[in-house]
Amino acid sequence: MIYFDNAATTRVMPEVAEVVQKAMTETFGNPSSPYRLGLEAERLVRQARESVAAALGCQPDEVYFTSGGTEANNLAIRGTLQAKIRKGKHVVASAVEHAAVLETLKQLAQLDLCEYTLVPPDSKGRIAPEAVLDAVRDDTVLVTVMTVNNEVGTMQPVAEIARLVKERDPGVYFHSDAVQALGKTSCRLRELGVDLLTISGHKLGAPKGVGALYCREGVRIISQITGGGQEREMRSGTENVPGIAGFGKAITLALEQMEERTAQWRQLQKQLLALLKEIPDIQVLGDPLTNAPHILSVGFPGVRGEVLVHALAAEGLFVSTGSACSSRRDVTSHVLKAMGVAPQVSEGSIRISFGWENTIQEVERAAELIEQAVRELRRFQRY
Length: 383
Hints:
- The protein is of the alpha/beta class.
- The protein has helices at 14-25, 36-56, 69-83, 99-110, 129-135, 158-168, 189-192, 241-276, 305-314, 334-338, 343-346, 360-380; strands spanning 2-3, 63-66, 90-94, 115-119, 140-144, 173-177, 196-200, 211-215, 283-285, 295-299, 317-318, 349-353.
- Helix 7 links the parallel strand 6 and strand 7.
């Protein structure tokens, strides 16, 4: 098996699995309970919070654990709109955001709870800071631009956009979905200058079902899950202690190994691209020279992406057609459409994404399998 779909999810690292298992079988108390087992569980949550804060360069009290990136995005958007209702209900977002942002805005607009403006990217998927600034209105309460695009890997100039927005109107909150950035590029908050930041565990070797929202001190948003008042009244519900403990371990390992891993991923990306360019009419999407190191998006005119994915899976190579959150829907990628990618290229596109255990030997074998599958499918479909 060659697993090249790490932007969808990653295998849990052995060191993380050990921490998770111990939290499930030994430190299994409710962290809200006052006796020893509860206090031990609470200690695991506190230590994980400190690990996340250290990775981001913030205070532990600015980190709120959630069930993942989708919940954190919803909390940032819905919580801001409710907290700032007197200022307005307008949101500015990039047109290439994850569905967790775009579908949330769409639903809120249908309920007349918000208005939003989508800023289109250039042909490489990049958002121009000036275009975001031009979209900000007097009633804008939130700007949200992701750090790394989950489909093509484009790294957005978040720090510059945030600076310009804050200079224009300090009262506008700035949020960034950094789910695909964490562990692959710097997410130091002092550099980014954001008010709210979304991260997730299962993209860097932690279990599924755990994420976090950074909320800068002094930024007020309204809780979306009420109940027992966990997470300092921000996110009620008994904490996912095993997941949180695993997330803390994974983020520590990812940051310790980031320099080595990113260099490895750049090498894998460069080698795979060189081999794939031998395939006639291949289209490279985004800009691999400046993209995040772990994502490569390519299109093959004359081939249907989902058919290619299934053909490769039958040979033990796992890739995707784009975002795993929408890959089972028979729809054109909104990211590639916004970038102006031709339909015949978009329909034949796949996303290849590397993780902590991939090797150059896997890249060489994957290139062979992709070339073979594209050639056979094109012949079958009379390309």
